[in-house]
Design a protein that fits this description.
The chain is an alpha/beta fold. Helices cover 29% and strands 25% of the residues. It has two domains: 184 residues, Rossmann fold (3-Layer(aba) Sandwich); 139 residues, 3-Layer(aba) Sandwich (Rossmann fold). Helix 3 packs across helix 10.
Length: 335
């Protein structure tokens, strides 16, 4: 926050805000790492403030150096950082930011992680495997975070890995509202695999649309073979739902299977556009008409395709940050 700017506390006009006792710092401070600065700037703008000043550099051997360029003593500090590519560098950057804030005597530290990396390693599927989601939870807690704000965790049980409060925001309604105008009698919500059936069923009910399922077999990681389509998609406009798109193998092969089954227009959406490896090439050659993604991960301009539609999560995160600061329930965001 620059010199002369009012804090969020003094800017908000509601009597509830003015009279409520805030015992975790009298001012809000928002900082960001290097993973998703455009989203952080949008969140700050929604809160009618600006990002705090912070130096993030590297030593010649690659070690990360962080220093806050303004006082945060006793402040309610929010550190915005997705642990997206490069995952390890961004995660380490977040941990160092948290440690620096703790040592600078911040009143409370909230790690705002629009995308929580390592979420897929949430259990031991085979012997001698790590549970890396738990490890990352331990690292964030040990670094000194008091709370975590994230969105659409890959697995909800990750919430139990934390010994500090975690708020898992829901980005789905924002995506569904984007496609709501397209819903008619010929619109079908499609689960790209069996694991996404519960999510697709919930979306279909919300949109009052029919549902179909792509039954597939995965011989090994990132390799998918479509087996069957359960449901009627011939002549229909289809929307495939997933929480993340990584190499895009599942979503692209699913789209091709739908097209072969006679589907008309094929749409897709996800909360997190990881888009690693051959994802861009696969999507460019796919029959998908539009792919809507939340901006939890910053996608470089050189990777943007004409079919991509980015939807801002800044309003949701800004409301969540305000509610954390005011100790209000998160349910108010969706009222």
């Amino acid at each position: 926050m620059g010199e002369g700017k009012l804090s969020l506390y003094t800017k908000v006009k509601s009597e509830e805000f003015k009279t409520q006792m805030i015992n975790h710092g009298n001012e809000i401070k928002i900082f960001t790492g290097n993973s998703n600065r455009p989203l952080a700037e949008a969140i700050a703008a929604k809160l009618d403030t600006s990002l705090g000043q912070m130096e993030v550099t590297h030593f010649s051997d690659g070690e990360i150096y962080v220093r806050f360029d303004e006082s945060i003593r006793g402040k309610d500090v929010f550190l915005i950082q997705s642990t997206s590519y490069p995952v390890n560098a961004n995660l380490m950057e977040l941990l160092i930011m948290i440690d620096a804030a703790k040592r600078a005597s911040a009143g409370r530290i909230t790690a705002v992680m629009p995308y929580f990396g390592y979420a897929r390693q949430d259990r031991k599927a085979r012997s001698r495997e790590p549970i890396t989601a738990k490890l990352v939870a331990n690292l964030i807690t040990s670094a000194g975070a008091d709370r975590v704000l994230t969105m659409d965790l890959h697995c909800l049980q990750i919430q139990g890995f934390f010994d500090i409060p975690l708020d898992n925001l829901v980005g789905g309604p924002t995506l569904y509202n984007h496609f709501k105008p397209k819903v008619d009698d010929n619109f079908v919500v499609v689960s790209p695999d069996i694991g996404s059936v519960a999510r697709a069923r919930k979306v279909a009910a919300r949109m009052d649309a029919k549902m179909a399922i792509i039954d597939k077999r995965r011989p090994k990681a990132n390799v998918m073979e479509v087996m069957n389509i359960i449901g009627d998609v011939k002549g229909k406009n289809c929307l495939m739902i997933d929480d993340m798109i990584d190499t895009a193998g599942t979503i692209v092969q699913g789209a091709k299977a739908l097209k072969e089954a006679g589907a008309k227009e094929i749409y897709a959406c996800c909360s997190h556009g990881v888009l690693s490896g051959p994802a861009i090439e696969r999507l460019a050659d796919s029959p998908i008409t539009e792919l809507a993604m939340l901006d939890t991960i910053n996608i470089p301009k050189e990777k943007m395709l004409p079919i991509f539609k980015m939807i801002s999560t800044a309003p949701i995160f800004a409301s969540a940050i305000e509610n954390v600061y005011l100790d209000r329930p998160m349910s108010k965001i969706y009222d």
